[in-house]
From TrEMBL:
Cellular compartments annotated: Cell membrane; Cytoplasm
Gene name for this UniProt entry: ftsY
Main localization category: membrane
Protein name listed in UniProt: Signal recognition particle receptor FtsY
SMART domains: AAA, SRP54, SRP54_N
Amino acid sequence: MFSFFKKKAPPPAPIFTMEPPAPLDAPVTAPKATPVATPPPAAISSPKPAPVATPAPVAAEPVDMRGGMAMFESAAARERWMDRLRGGLQKTGAGITQVFVGTRIDDHLYEELEAALLMADTGVKATEHLLQDLKRRVKDSKATDPQQVKTLLADALTDLLKPLEKALVVGQYQPTVVMVVGVNGAGKTTSIGKLTRHLADAEQSVLLAAADTFRAAAREQLAVWADRNRVEIVSQEGADPAAVTFDAVSAAKARGRDVVIADTAGRLPTQLHLMEELKKIRRVIAKADLTAPHEVLLVVDGNTGQNALTQVKAFDDALTLTGLIVTKLDGTAKGGVLAAIARERPVPVYFIGVGEKLEDLETFDAREFAQALLS
């Protein structure tokens, strides 16, 4: 063990000499002072301090989670993910792709396509944008086959969704604090468990905060994921959610953990008093770390369609969202809501889920999504 302090050497012990006592009748005389030569005054000058080298700033080593996801490990893994994505989006894409079968390019095709897009919960604004963009592309390319139009629609949809394409990056802060919110049943805790596994695979140390203290099952479920992924968890039954999160961030800083993920209680955006509690959690996190939370993620259920857009707007207004996790796209015909989000509230989509398995949560790619939807 190294010490930053050097102990001072003890001063030398004084040397005592004994002289024979003087006779009792001897006269007492004051000793003669021995003249001491006074040295000439020396010029006093302050020594110049030696220049101290300023250490070079240590560059952060952020980890792009796109590199840690299974779909990018190999071409085979990526193709398996595309198969799952196509299967997951089949219900949404079926109504759109059948428009291009046995028809010709005319106003009727565009009318049918408009109806199909609206049925997929693409939303009025996004649908109008896609149709206008598609007509321009058809005119510029002089397309004559409906299948060519479908390809051009995939290009238009890709461009519309491109602003949502952003990867979660951790490592710029230590720890990176992620606050996860959403309504009941959206899949917050399960998504946190899957994300924790992907972070662990990317060699990131994770600490979970069970800030959903109102539902015992949520704490138990999160504890199962913590045990499965071999990560630490901070949990207190019946405690204030903000206090649990504060303790978790403080513990992560003390233990040098890379990421803190805080699970919060599910609530509807119309429950204003509960939304205020989320704001409180965010404020208390900032007391534990002035730069935190670094990510505020909303988990939305793809089955809810246009209601998902309403949730994005409400939570974004209250908490300033940094990203989305869209789950359960495999069980819905309303996956077009991502286009509505891109057009009206383009909060980045970090991950999409098309099943319950670990590998069914992957990073969002606009081109892959458009191709899978219209395949």
